[in-house]
Records
---
Amino acid sequence: MTEAHRPLHGQKAIVTGASSGIGAGIARAFARAGAAVGINYRSGRDAAEALVEEIAREGGEAVALGADVSDEAQVQAMFRAALGAFGRLDILVANSGIQQDAPFAEMTTAQWRRVIDVNLTGQFLCAREAVRTFLAQGVTPDGPSRAAGKIVCMSSVHDVIPWAGHANYAASKGGVALLVKTLAQELAERRIRVNAISPGAIRTPINREAWATPEAEAKLLALIPYGRVGEPEDVAAAAVWLASDASDYVVGATLYVDGGMTLYPAFRDNG
């Protein structure tokens, strides 16, 4: 792929939760699209460093950035480290997310708080540092992008689909959905674009039980009109587009990468 055909050529990015799953897929896609990538991890240091080495072997640039995104001081240190490595920042993909599932009557305060802390407060903390950086940099006429900065927040189809037994997760993703729109409204005039991706069923370690056996996968496919389970590469392709100038006029949007899961598939046969 030539430099001219790499849509993120010359840009610098942080992808949180990038040591596995969707985040790792996005980091790979960004590097192949020409971006230097900060690969954030909380506990998966070996996997993050292996991904850095993989990207380097392919001719890309990446660094591993350890931080718990729910910890303000660690997030600020992560951004300082990224700026020290790259000199600037153009893109944040706020991807970190966890599940701690329980029936609502049995859900503990600790389970509720931890999921909200990572999935929602973590996105706030990372987005705030990114915005501060983008505002300080401004738009440079000969810069790598038409925008001052791009933020892509990872939400979920469960920002619109209720999910029994996962109240903390659904609440966190519903919060992300409106956070994105509010930030987009506030920051568009400063040439900062904020958008979201809401994945459906994606084949990652976090939901292995849902697709690991033929029986489980068949049950899952009943919810997906398009007839296949998604792959991290499906989400990564959307992230590259939202981070590139090809989507320069897209502001405050949520892109559902879900094979039609949000289309109420139970109504396909007239209910």
Note: The chain is about 40% helix and 15% strand.
---
Amino acid sequence: MRVIFTMNYSGTLLKMETKLENPVEYELPIGDELVFMNHLIGKYIIFKWNKEIYCIGCGRKTNKSFAQGFCYPCLMSAPETSECILRPELCEAHKGIARDMEWAKYHCLEDHFVYLAISSGVKVGVTRSAQIPTRWIDQGAWQAIKLGKTPNRYTAGLIEIALKEHISDRTQWQRMLKNELVKGVDLLDKKKEMLNYLSEELIKYECEDNDITEIIYPVKEYPEKVKSLSFDKLDEITGRLWGIKGQYLIFDDGSVLNVRKHTGYKVVLEI
């Protein structure tokens, strides 16, 4: 008789924690456990959702998740869901205006970087200094460079707005997951080009760090076509894990699961 041993992890999902190694190391928080996902690549895994979602802000049970893990009341009141999270140029913390000034002190009124990264194409973005290189990894970038350094989120947003007239601020997730790399782009040259578009007021925030960070992901083979999976449509998601990029689990049939999108979902992971 053949005995098959399985391991089960149960609890609410959070976005995967990452470490910049060669390749990137991923840990998936499920409840109180941290599952090292790199060791599961090549193995058959099963996710089962019990149709429960819990807000990562207040912990209450909710019928729907907003802004990647929040209930509706927290969407409207939590500092993590402020409008300036998606639009830094709208931040008013430097004026003393925020949903929670204590939170803003450590998230809006600290050093921010404006950066260029290559994921599906070259893009501009903004992140806190403490979020480098995490932000780049979460976006599936394979190269990134710092362009500007500012003392707060608002100023970084102004630089991003100025550059968005000349370069995208979006990642095309399908192209990123298929690893359709943009060839022939020198990020240092692109940085110099973008700096030319900044006003005299903004150019003083130029970051002199010209190091290019390269990121390699733990993927056996990239899919030619991708199909997005969701617990909102499937109570059970199964397949052989073939790789991880950004916050996506990639299965051997080309289907992908966006872990961050399902933050707060209560699941069982069977290995």
Note: Residues 12 and 85 are 23 Å apart (CA to CA).
